[in-house]
Amino acid sequence: MQSENKLFDDLARVASGAAGALAGARAELEEVFRQRIERFLSEADMVPRDEFEAIKAVAVKARESQDALERRVEALEAEIAALKKPAKRRSPAEKTSQKSSN
Nearest 5°: phi and psi at 94? Predict the structure, then answer.
């Protein structure tokens, strides 16, 4: 009976030792993975979030300004087109009636 208890004790020690070794290996793998990710991100040409947001705000403002300028140009082009339209020609009867009224 005593040998059975000793066998179970030995098995329990081996199992706990294996679990400890696996936990240590897991922690080591996580650290290696974290280091590789950090190195990749530092070497990659990545933009920090705050810089991205600042550039995005500038781009939105530029787009709004461009839209406003496009509307102004369209309005000015419409004005120019209206000024370039030929004047309505008067009929000869209108010309004579205008001369007699003067």
Answer: -65, -35
For the chain, list the strands marked E by DSSP. none
Contacts of 98 by beta carbon, 8 Å cutoff, 6+ apart: 90
Dist. CA 37–CA 58, nearest whole Å: 31
Return the CA Rg of the chain: 43
Q: Which two tokens stand for residue 51?
A: 């810089």
CA dist., res. 33 & res. 2, Å (int): 46
In the block, which residue shows the tokens 């030995």? 10
What are the tens digits of pLDDT across the range 32-76?
A: 999 998 888 888 877 889 999 999 999 999 999 999 999 999 999
Please tell me the predicted confidence (pLDDT) of residue 96. 61
CA-nearest of 27, 6, 3 to 19 is 27
pTM across the whole model: 0.42
